[in-house]
Amino acid sequence: MYRLRISNLQAHLLWIACALVCLFSLAYVDPAEAGERPHVLFQQTEAYCLTCHSNPELSMTFPSGEVLSLYIDPENLSHSVHSPQGIECEACHTNITTFPHPEQEYADARSFSRAYYQACQKCHATNYEKTLDSMHQQAFEAGNLEAPICTDCHGAHDVSDPNEPRAKVSTTCSQCHDVIFDQYKNSIHGKALIEENNLDVPVCTDCHGVHNVQDPRTEQFRIQSPEMCAGCHADAELMAKYDLPADVYDIYNLSWHGVEISVYKARWPSIWHDTAVCTDCHGVHTILSTNDPLSSVNPANLLATCQKCHPDAGPNWTGAWTGHNKISLEKTPFLFYTEAFYTSLTPFVLWSLVIYVILQIIRATVARVRRSIQ
Amino acid sequence: MSRKNNASIHTVRYFPRFSLSRRWEHTFLLLSFAVLLLTGLPQKFRAMSWSQSLLSTPESVNLIQQIHHIAAIVLTLEVFYHLGLIVVKMARRKLTGEMLPTWQDVKDAGSMLKYLLFLRKDKPPFGKFNFEQKVTYWFLFFGIGIMVLTGFMLWFPIQVTKFLPGGIIPAAKMAHSTEAVVAGIFIVIWHFYHVHMERLNLSIFTGKLTEEDMKEFHTLEYQKLTKKSASRNLEGKK
Predict the structure, then answer these.
(1) Which of A4, B77, B92, B111 is 20 to 30 Å apart from A371, CA to CA?
(2) Is 70 exceeded by the pLDDT of residue B215?
(3) Which chain B residues are closer than 8 Å to A338 by Cβ?
(4) Torsion angle of alpha carbons A359, A365, A371, B2, nearest 10°?
(5) Who among B139, B158, B198 is closest to A313 (CB)?
(6) Residues 130..169 of B with a Cβ closer than 8 Å to A: which?
(7) What is the DSSP string of B83-131?
(8) What is the rounded average pLDDT for all residues in chain A?
(9) What was the ipTM of the complex prediction?
């Protein structure tokens, strides 16, 4: 009976040992799980956090009544740009280092996001500072809390290359700018991008900028917009690829519209000027090929486009626009003959007169010298 | 009318050359031409920085265009007056036609060229208007015609293209812009040389020429006039 008798102390020790075994076996789960994912650096904190945050049910409720899911998809997290580089949860969630977490003081989900996105500038200072100079920041300062922050465009836990595929840029912007995206996706640029993954066509950010997105309705944006289009449309190599002329910008600059714009750009960039820039005739997000019957500059629609600024113009009016064409007998016969007149007959007559006057001067000088000698 | 051989008294004999009407025409032409050139060139060269410095505000561009338009109206009225006068004179059979180019002008040009190339000792004798002066008149006649026509096309392009093809508007712009420079160069080189440097000829302002100038530069006209007056004097003595 003695051997079977277990003292009070022994019972306690046995219970502790069992508890320890259980605890150790629990603790052993984490590194085992982490080890199952190849190419992923071992992250103590990430795995630690995921023990709770991999639960899809996990959520929190703000005083506003909003419910925020706290579920982090481990799969998404592992494919983000940060996680494989060993950038841990704590890098962004700087105030949460252990469990239990400190009390959150945010009234709603948006102010919670707006507070946490500040962590991005720790590493991405340059781009963060650019955003402070953006139209989006202006909207925020005007009181719009929905104005985008880093995570709205880049994502939070699933941050990935914003350029891959290229069309992703446009779909990112379309989250808010859906009406403009609908126009863009049917334009010649948008179609080539979305349907063919064409890397030459402009996405939103090529014209609007990336982090320091500016208001495109300002005088300054308008005045520099032709130059912006010229970035591609004056690139001979690029245009040759699509069988497009590369001299459209140069010819525009010689036109009535182009000269006006160049003067305003040089001298009065802050004064609004209505003279036509590329987008006034070709459209902005709706640009189509000139051959497209729906294009605003298709010959069938050109007069209506001119009449936006020249309301009284008649059907002959479109001929007054040389259509980005070099002077030629076929395309611009009146200009062709005028130029021919002023490059042949007029210089010939003028030079004859100049030579005649020079001969007169020589003859008169000789006559005067002869007279003084006599 | 006779010249005396007294050294202290020197009588200068003048010959009338331009009527008051012609002199006023020239004044309006000169003023409007100068204003048009001065207000037009900065517009032609708007891409150049000197023009942009001159037209330093959008308002100054507007102003210069308005001045240009006013001067254009003055020039146009002068052109209509001139053409109207020709028509009226033709109707009254009073147009002398002394400004019309003749075969004699071609021959005169040839002789003058020979003289300038030292192939001839003397200048050929000229009438009231020598071929140089006719060149001035006709060069500006057509030049101003081009400027007035194309100028109004550029001023009222919408109205003009109601009945003319649109392609003439950029052509008019090129013609207006180029012809202005051509006419400017012509005035400075050709006209200014002949009336300021070759000799100071202010007859278009004073309306008259001295006997010496008449003898030297308009020999045939001088002979014609003196013969006439001589015969008239004879008639008076009878």
Answers:
(1) B111
(2) yes
(3) 171, 174-175
(4) 80
(5) B158
(6) 135, 139, 157-158, 161-169
(7) HHHHHHHHHTT----TTS--HHHHHHHHHHHHHHTTSSSSPPP--SS-H
(8) 86
(9) 0.87
Cα–Cα distance measured from residue A33 to residue A46, given in angstroms and rounded to the nearest whole number = 12
Bridge partners for B209 per DSSP = B15
Report CB contact under 8 Å: A337, B46: no
**Rounded Cα distance, A58 and A45, in Å:** 18
CA B62 to chain centre: 30
Using alpha carbons, select from A314, A332, A336, A333 the residue that is nearest to residue A323: A332
Question: What angle in degrees, to the nearest 10, is found between the helix axes of B58-91 and B20-44?
Answer: 150
Residue type for B160, please?
Answer: V
- Look at residue A28 and tell me whether its pLDDT is greater than 60: no
Contact A157, A131 (CB under 8 A): no
Token code pair at residue A27: 């603790």
CB A229 within 8 A of CB A249: yes
Query: Cβ-count burial of A23 within 10 angstroms (0-12 exposed, 13-18 middle, 19+ buried)?
Result: exposed
Query: Half-sphere exposure of residue A128, counting CA atoms within 13 Å on the CB side?
Result: 10
Q: Which of B157, B189, B190 sits opposite A320 (nearest CB)?
A: B157
Is residue B175 within 8 A of residue A258, CB to CB? The reply is: no
- pTM, two decimals, is 0.80
Q: Contact at 8 Å (CB) between B181 and B197?
A: no
Q: Which of B116, B163, B189 sits opposite A359 (nearest CB)?
A: B116
**Assigned token pair, A61:** 């409720």
Between CA A213 and CA A216 the distance in angstroms is 9
Query: Residues B26-41: pLDDT tens digits?
Result: 999 999 999 999 999 9
Tokens of B237: 């003595």
Q: pLDDT, tens digit, for every residue of B105-129?
A: 999 999 999 999 999 888 899 988 9
The number of CA neighbours under 13 Å toward the Cβ of A89 is 18
Banded model confidence at residue B155, pLDDT cuts 50, 70, 90? very high
Establish if B48 touches chain A: CB-CB under 8 angstroms: no
Nearest CA in chain A to B143: A346
Residue of B nearest to A314 (CA): B162
Nearest to A276 by CA among A300, A302, A242: A302
Degrees to nearest 5, angle at CA A110 with A104 and A113: 65
- The length of chain A is 374
Contact B174 A335 (CB under 8 A): yes
Cα(A331)–Cα(A338) distance, integer angstroms: 14
**How far is residue B30 CA from its own chain's centroid?**
9
Chain A nearest C-alpha distance from B13 (Å): 25
**CA dist A121 to A155, A266, A370, B166, Å?**
15, 36, 90, 58
The stretch A236-259 carries a mean pLDDT of 93
